[in-house]
Fold these 2 entries.
Entry 1:
Amino acid sequence: MLSESEDLQQEDNWFEGIKPRARRKYAKRPMKGRARELSAEEGNATVAEIFPNQAALRLDGVPGRVLCGYRMSTLAFNGTSRERSPVCVGDRVRAEARVIVGRCIRRNALVRSAPNARNPLLHAVAANLDALVVVAAACEPDFTPGIVDRFLVAASAQNIPAILCINKADLLVAGADKPWLRYAAAGVALVEASAMQEDGAEALARLVRGKAAAFCGHSGVGKTSLLRRLLGDAALGRIGELSAATGMGKHTTTGAVMLPGPEGSSWIDTPGIMNFTLVGVDRAGLLQHFPELQEASARCAEGCLHDAEPDCALLGLPRHRSYREILAVLKDSLPPPDQSDDER
Ligand SMILES: Nc1nc2c(ncn2[C@@H]2O[C@H](COP(=O)(O)OP(=O)(O)OP(=O)(O)O)[C@@H](O)[C@H]2O)c(=O)[nH]1
Ligand SMILES: [Mg+2]
Ligand SMILES: [Zn+2]
């Protein structure tokens, strides 16, 4: 797995092709928007991959990809934009003469705040999704609920149906504890899979066939391997390059890429990240993204923040810890949580 500094370095790859002066401009100043967002009907292509000042597009009805240019200034929306890139993978756009001239309104987007900046830019990872596949490993690396819950909240906040895929099931020993089973109780679609077994990803394939689905999760959990299992080696030509960050021969994905699959599927491989920082969720609205906790909260006293109050009905429930961890980092209108207890 990548260290945090490697993660940041990897995250900044996108900026690397841009001249340092322009880079500073993008990072500091919100852009004045000259563009309007297009309606869905005006789009004629889908973004498959982003490069500095260029994007690989799949034009409607045309096989393969074409590289088209775009300009940050002409694609800034809503007066100002704090987006790191004006288009992201999955965006519907209008291309004319090899230039992206407009972006269509997004149905939804998986957005995080880009690291390494005091006044962080928004980083849309993928847009217009029918499903978010949150991939975690049964082991190697160990199952960690924190990042899974943050992705599930992000999906819920954007009304994107989530699928929790536990990969590396082949490494599970009989009778091992399966902490992910509780997610089924929370109403999340749950599949166990193995990228190393012939039929190891069949159940997952059934859930994502025909859909635009992004695969996200920590580095090394097997997102790319699962896609290779689902699509075959040929589809993943560019994946499997040596990691630039470590040079250790790790096959780390460095940018999101959309891959065409069966029955009109568009499956998006995304780079593994250490820190998925939520955007667009506030503390008061957090509980609704944990349906089973919200249900239990009916037994709480009025005004309970569900943050370790001694009579809180959520104490001891499986995802309460994740809830509190997210609550602690969300800035907003409610007073800061009392962190004097020793559980944290
Ligand atoms: N045993 C086993 N190993 C797996 C499985 N899936 C992936 N691996 C191994 O786990 C390692 C990481 O797999 P990747 O597919 O590169 O993981 P990733 O999630 O794409 O990682 P990033 O691109 O860094 O985000 C590789 O060495 C794979 O061979 C699996 O189902 N079982
Ligand atoms: Mg990968
Ligand atoms: Zn409570």
Note: The mean pLDDT is 82.
Entry 2:
Amino acid sequence: MATITFLGTSGSVVTKKRMCAGILFEDKLIDVGFGVLTNLLRSGKKLNAIHDVYISHTHSDHIGDFTGLIWAMAMDRRTEPLRVVSSSSTAASLERILDLQSTPQAWVKFDIMFVRPEDVGTKSVTTIHEPENLAYRFQTKQGDLVYIGDTAKSEKISEFAKGCDVLIHEATFLDGQESIAAVTSHSTARDAGNTAKLARARRLVLTHFSPQNEGAEKQYRAQASSVFDGQVIVAKDYQTITV
Ligand SMILES: [Zn+2]
Ligand SMILES: [Zn+2]
């Protein structure tokens, strides 16, 4: 069985209850938004258990702690290489950020290998978001996990997520907030429910909640469940589920 731990479930900024985007999936850290490193350490997870870092896109709520993670691994005396999986444009930005934040290469005693998802056999698709955002699909013996990152509602994503066991979909907004969702290329809980329905996913996990909707967990679940018949989970920081 594969374990997924939510290390951050807020969109845009951290709140009292939620850090920004980040998930630990076995030996993979998927997105490293602000606060994810803190939650990773507080949850007792070991940095050297992470072999791959997957990044959806370069908005700071998805990469804010990236340099901090590299420094923490260096302080932890890591020597094993770290693979960073992303689009080529995201990789170029991450390399530049490490450089601009004066991360001393001689002091980091491990190789950071920037690779594309196809290089490591992981399926990906570009979503509707700016800058370029990749959704990823991971295979396990029990079923597939699909992580979207950020997106506006997209039928291409329901195709990509077809038949998955767990669909982790952003739900930044709620009913009545469709116009801001459109302007910012984000989804509502209902959009996520529709995508899960079209994909025939078994379970839908909502995450990346707008801080302005803090405390609206019941509405998130109800609005996604009004269109999707499967199980809907409204993710919380530190929550663990299995595939
Ligand atoms: Zn985001
Ligand atoms: Zn974004």
Note: The helical segments are 36-42, 60-63, 66-75, 88-100, 155-160, 178-184, 189-199, 217-225.
